[in-house]
Amino acid sequence: MIVDKPEWVTHGTNIFSVDVHPQGTRFATAAADNRVKIWNMLPVIDVNQETDKSAPKLLATLADHFSAVNVARFSRSGRFLASGADDKLVCIYELRPGPGGRAFGSSDVPNVENWKHVSTLKGHTNNVLDVAWSPEDRWLATASVDNTIAIWDGATGARITTLEGHTSYVKTLAWDPVGTYLASQSDDKSCLVWRTQDWAQAGAVTQPFKRWVSLTFSLKMDWAPDGRALAVVNSFQSPNHTCVLLERGCWDRDPG
After folding, report:
1. CA atoms lying within 13 Å on the CB side of residue 148
2. For labelling, which of 24, 51, 132, 138 has a CA lying 20 to 30 Å from the CA of 91?
3. CA 41 to CA 44: how far, in whole Å?
4. Residue 106: which pLDDT band, with cuts at 50, 70 and 90?
């Protein structure tokens, strides 16, 4: 992947995550400075907006974590944003009407948009590496270095269940388009598929990942738009590094 990053999109340190709002009007970055920043998309796609000094570029700075922020994801509706960090916490923000403010004692510039910190989800015992909203934002799934996946109620923030099946830290999550399955990939060289009806494990795939090289900080898998296949990265099929396509409903059969 090649990313052309505008010079003004900066945290002054490593950026770990980028996510675009469903409306395409803004995007969020998460970084090692313990912050999430929300940026205006217009200056990225319109050079006139980029050179217009009256057009805001940074829309909000969210500074409620105490350690490096690994991931930030907008909800499917775009109303909420969830972030996960090395402080073991997940912060939930809601976009509310009116202008934003500035955290007490902060040296950050005042926020243009009003992203309100509405809740903090506690339960993981180690760094949070990924967060994922289900279709229609019914659930929020979070993955951690503690080898578990937590499922939270998307409306109340209540913890629904904890999925335990991986033997090493969980790097990435992906909901199928209709919310029937949740897939997870871990540093234990496996991809597990969970059934949301009862949160039982529906299948496990390991063979394509037995020879993977665990050098990546993060991974990202995704479903086909119709949900018929799941694309899972970091497989090694000699002599090439490959992406594996897993057919829906065949979780117990490793692809050849």
Report:
1. 13
2. 24
3. 5
4. low
How far, in Å, CA of 237 to CA of 212, rounded? 9
pTM comes to 0.91
- Tokens found for residue 251: 């979780």
Query: Which tokens belong to 191?
Result: 């991809």
Residues in the chain: 256
Is residue 144 within a helix (H) or strand (E), and if so which, with residue range? strand 139-144
Name residues whose C-beta falls within 8 Å of residue 33's C-beta, 6 or more positions apart in sequence. 11, 12, 13, 68
Please tell me the predicted confidence (pLDDT) of residue 244: 85
Stretch (H or E) spanning 45: helix 42-45
**Quick count: other Cβ atoms within 10 Å of Cβ 203?**
18
Q: Take residue 151 and report the two structure tokens written for it.
A: 């499922």
Q: What would the two tokens of residue 250 be?
A: 């065949």
CB distance 180 to 193 below 8 Å: no
**In the block, which residue shows the tokens 């289900």?**
134
Strand ranges across the sheet with 200-205:
170-175, 181-186, 190-195, 200-205
Instruction: Give residue-wise pLDDT tens across range 161-186.
Output: 999 999 999 999 999 999 999 999 99
